[in-house]
Amino acid sequence: MASAAAAAPPAAVTGPRKGIPPWAWALPPVAVLGLVFLYPLALVVQQSFRPDTGGTSAQAYGDVFASAAFREALGTTVWLALGSTAGCLLLGFVLALVIAFVPFPGGKAVAKFIDVFLSFPSFLITLALLFVYGTVGMANGLWTGATGAAEGPFQFLTTPWGVLLAEITYFTPFVMRPLLAAFSGIDTAQLEVASSLGARPARIVRQVVLPEALPALAAGGSLVLVLCLNEFGIVLFTGAKGVTTLPMLVYSKAILESDYPGACVVAVVNVLISVGLYGLYRVVSRRVGA
Amino acid sequence: MLVHSRKGKWATWAVFFVLFLPLFALPLLVVLAASFATNWSSAFPSGFTTGHYTAATRGESLQALTTSLVTALTASLIALVVGTWAALAGHALKKRGKRLLDALFMLPVAVPSVVVGLAILVAFSKPPMLLNGTRWIVVLAHAVLVTAFAHQSVSAAVVRLDPAYEQAAASLGARPSYVLWRVRLPLLLPSLTAAAGLCFALSMGELSATMMLYPPDWTPLPVQIYAATDRGALFTGSALAVVLMTATVLVLFAVSRIRTKASYR
In this structure, what are the phi and psi dihedrals at residue A13, rounded to the nearest 5 degrees? Predict the structure, then answer.
């Protein structure tokens, strides 16, 4: 395969000399993508219109939309994604602001740590939270040890709030990276001028830094929104029966209940929401040049 | 710069670390501490043991580690070849064609990984392409998921490539394949290794699509970690997670060594 790739694109460099047009070189990778990704995706859409009883009908859609489980999952997914995105934006903005404009020794190391953090899987956060806030974890252990109560006050892990905390923790670095890049483009002289003219830090942040950071905030925020809508590992590891999101519903319908038409319907809805938002993200980030 | 008084600076840093340490550093430390413990019901873990690691590097768990490594390596290689090819071919296209190609190759990022898993399961469960139940379906799913990232980082680097080098080579009579192999790919090497590292790390931690389609004889490490925590063996799960993180970081480190060597050329 490597040798095939090696022989491929140079016609693009030299142009029409060999008579193979540039678009022909783009065909093999597109064909591969079509076979292993686009065609399967089309099959999912097709299967969502094919109930187990045979024939073609939109009955599966009716069934799924009517079920309370689906509506609850849709609501949970959307509010968790919106809440996490808001939290990530706020937290990421504050943290990036300190790293960039109130520099401290070791700030570089912190930025590097964030890069490494991004390469770890999301479910590690939930696993860690189980030890910190779980039923017999650190926080509850401290509480019961101090008060002698039978159980601690931290029981939120298996509720949506636990998922929210994990998602904010995991996705904040995704906001911080573009923000730090945007902040490095701000001339510090601007801040010094504003400050010497008597502006307080809060005003400088609002009137000088924030306008510069808006594109990066928009781009990072919409990426995190899409990633939160698609998040599965965090919800799975929480192990909560009460928290069902759309990806979780796809998994449980397909693997646990073997209800493939139903799973495909939920999948189609989830893809439409995510791809729509992702398209918006691409438009926004292209327009602001981030 | 933003805060000038000494007191204000210290206050800002205090706020920073009060937010940063519990949220980002604590989770990793907690997993690390738990992997050496047998019990955790107060502020600190108790019952120091290395037994979880002995268990984590033996039998099923060791097999899960090699499974993950092989899967990630194969998927990254496939993703790198397809992604680089698409990036180079896309660079030669006109604006509209390039935009279409970019959108097509970024689509797997926007589609939920669970749905990618479901789609591949549906498509490859019947003849003529019967892959369900084999290890190849897992490798395929991982390759689909990480190709987008390989394509993105390589096509960003292709744009920055100075065309003078390849033009000079071509004007001296180098054949297109020679220009590609000896000029363009070496110049792209830093971004290729960076892309390889990213793909590898993502594939090592992939859980969503894998949960949909792994066969019983090909369970990657994240699935093993889930199985452990699901049956309540949290400490074993932590040891496995530490093994996963260490393997990922080691490979990332090795890959970044290649990059520094290449950039001196």
Answer: -70, -45
Secondary structure letter of residue A207 according to DSSP: I
What does the buried/exposed string (b/e) look like for B95-124 if buried means 16 or more CB atoms within 10 Å of the residue's CB? eeebeebbebbbbbbbbbbbbbbbbbbbbb
**Cα within 13 Å of Cα(B265), Cβ side:** 13
Q: Give A153: exposed, middle or buried? Use CB within 10 Å, 0-12, 13-18, 19+.
A: exposed
> Which positions 98-127 of A are in contact with B (Cβ < 8 Å)?
98-99, 101-104, 110, 113-114, 116-117, 119-125, 127
Kindly state whether residue B27 falls inside one of the protein's structural domains: no
Which domains occur in chain A, in start order?
A: 57-119+173-287 (1.10.3720.10)
Residue A32 tokens, joined:
């591969």
B122 contacts A44? CB cut-off 8 A: yes
Host domain of residue B129: 63-263
For chain B, say whether A154 makes contact (Cβ under 8 Å): no
* CATH code for the domain of B224: 1.10.3720.10
A102 vs B123: CB contact, 8 Å cut-off?
Answer: no
The structural domain count of chain B equals: 1
Task: With respect to residue B107, please indicate whether it lies within any of the assigned structural domains.
Answer: yes
A82 touches chain B (CB under 8 A): no
Mutate to test the interface with A, among B104, B115, B182, B249 (most CBs of A within 10 A): B115
The reply to whether B32 falls in a domain is: no
- φ, ψ of residue A222 to 5 degrees: the values are -75, -30
- Beta-carbon contacts below 8 Å between A and B: 301
pTM confidence score: 0.86
Residue B31 domain-assigned? no
DSSP code string of chain B: ----SHHHHHHHHHHHHHHHIIIIIHHHHHHHHHTT-SB--SSS-BS--SHHHHHHTSHHHHHHHHHHHHHHHHHHHHHHHHHHHHHHHHHHS-HHHHHHHHHHHHHHHHS-HHHHHHHHHHHTSSTTS--TTSHHHHHHHHHHHHHHHHHHHHHHHHHHS-HHHHHHHHHTT--HHHHIIIIIHHHHHHHHHHHHHHHHHHHHH--HHHHHH--TT---HHHHHHHHHHTT-HHHHHHHHHHHHHHHHHHHHHHHHHHHHHHT-
Give the pLDDT confidence of A248-290 residue by residue, as tens digits: 999 998 888 888 888 999 999 999 999 888 888 778 777 765 4
Residues of B in contact with A246 (CB under 8 A): 112
A110-157 residue pLDDT tens? 888 888 888 889 999 988 888 888 777 777 877 877 877 777 777 787
ipTM confidence: 0.85
- Provide the β-strand partners of residue B46: B39
A contacts of B175 (beta carbons < 8 Å): 10
**B90 and A236 in contact by Cβ < 8 A?**
no
Closest by alpha carbon to B210, among A81, A98, A255? A255
